[in-house]
Specification:
- The chain is an alpha/beta fold.
- The protein has seven helices and five strands, in the order E-H-H-E-H-E-H-E-H-E-H-H.
- A five-stranded parallel β-sheet has the order 2-1-3-4-5, sandwiched between helices.
- Helix 4 links the parallel strand 3 and strand 4.
- Helix 3 runs parallel beside helix 4.
- The longest helix is centred in the C-terminal third of the chain and has 17 residues.
- The chain is globular and about 35 Å long.
Length: about 140
């Protein structure tokens, strides 16, 4: 059975736990179990995201070292870009422009409504899965 793999990024273990509870609720709606990858900062998150290619990334804006905005930019700007959904949890609504600039697909402001997070994530994952697969870079250049 297919699993939905979600990368959670936050320096706060309690915040990652709360995010996992919210995100875990998508299991029933997608009909697939959810598994989690975790990172404490954006640098670690980018390495894990590019290596593991999760179905979605949910990042806490307050991530230390490289934050959520840097994480999203690194994932989107990689040689083989991460094309899955990225959701950023913002501390302030005024930072929405940074989330948009970074390449995030969605952002929510604290305190996050767990149902809104789950609803948005389901929409994004389903939309991502509905997109046609990209051809490898070599095939695109030859064509």
């Amino acid at each position: 059975m297919r699993r939905v793999k979600v990368l959670l990024v936050s320096p706060d273990a309690e915040a990652r736990d709360l995010l996992s509870i919210s995100v875990g609720s998508i299991e029933r709606r997608l009909g697939e179990p959810v598994s989690f990858l975790e990172a404490q900062d954006g640098e670690q998150g980018a390495r894990i995201g590019l290596r593991e290619r999760p179905d979605a990334v949910v990042a806490d804006e307050i991530a230390s070292r490289a934050g959520a905005f840097s994480l999203a930019r690194d994932l989107r700007g990689a040689v083989e870009p991460y094309r899955g959904p990225i959701v950023i949890v913002l501390e302030r609504k005024h930072d929405a422009w940074l989330a948009r600039w970074s390449g995030a697909d969605a952002w929510l402001v604290r305190p996050v409504d767990p149902f809104e997070l789950a609803d948005r994530l389901v929409e994004l994952i389903q939309a991502y899965r509905a997109r046609p697969a990209e051809q490898p870079r070599e095939q695109r250049e030859i064509a």
